[in-house]
Specification:
Helices cover 39% and strands 22% of the residues. It is of the alpha/beta class.
Length: 419
Amino acid sequence: MKSLLIRDIVLDNKPADILIQGNRIKSIGRRLPKNAGRTVDGRGLTALPPLFNCHTHAAMSLLRGYADDMRLSEWLQTRIWPAEARFSRDDVRIGARLACLEMIKSGTTFFNDMYWHGRAAAEAAEEMGMRAVIGAGFIDGGDPARGAAQRRMLEEVRQELSGFSSRILFAPGPHAIYTVSSESLRFIKAFAGEWGLPIHIHLSETESEVNDSIGAHKLRPAEYLDSLGFLGPEVFAAHCLHLSEREVDLLAASRVKIIHVPASNLKLAAGGQMPYRALTKAGASVLLGTDGCSSNNSLDMFQTMKMAALLQKHAANDPASLPAPDAWAMATAVAAQAFGIDAGRIEEGRLADLILVDLDRPECAPGYNLAADLVYSANGYCVDTVVCDGRVLMLRRKVPGEEEIIADARRAARRLANA
């Protein structure tokens, strides 16, 4: 069994060594045996759990800067969807590799994706050494024939991904209530239940989505999903900006996981405010995500933590709302628990997922409060080394093959833009 010794790091404000055997943390202490298969010098670095990006469209890294400063409906219909229609399977793999590279370089080892060509995204995550939930994007537009084809697609992708490592999981990814028929939503709920899968969906992102749902179903979006029997603890719902008090209670009672996506919401002027206080008071689990690069432009979860915390303080008119330790937990331990991954904390016996952060960076000085520094002033450049599943993905800010990944992405983007 391969072993890795990380020597002379700081953990919980104390010097320590971490011994990893296989993909688990074997021991934490001082002066551990130095005959490990590989040794990493951690002097001057602090060991922390890695970040979890709970809502992404990874391959959209190829559309970073392609369509900015536009209204959501115009952005989707005139720029994004036409461009995505030109994506090949290889484009998705290339774009997902670029996204993985960016996430690794900013301390993220897990992402919850939703896109097309699921196997291609899975190949990218597998190659890069990350953990991922690969959500197979599902849109039927109310067309029964298209719905039947999409249902077959789900089973095909599920079977394809069964051959990947345990780091790669599968989820149906119904886009939203306005792009997926009620028949397909019911099917997806049953399909996920049969195979024990999570479900990844956009919910209540805009006022028009709410108004259209009321017009079509006489119910708000979360109420509509509840009427279909769709809600449940396996559901991960992104955005959730425009919720009524009843919807907050419904989502919390159903143990739906809420994914706050602050940067994308701000950039697309989605309006509203994700009711963090009401959701957490009701007992809901709230996670964080970046969204895709075309609606955020960055996959740096440090930015996301800061935006989430500042937005909630502004909305509540209370600087104590969403304090830094809570924002950090949302992006680490809370997310790990929500996805059933035995990580999110650095403890003996847990999965060997961790990052080494350089607190000698100017952003982290003078160093009064670690949580505050991580959430309010740090950024991805503060991450020195990344380990996932016992494998070193980045050492001293260098990821193997990064120049080739970036060059491939630029070639693919030029081809897509000029098509």
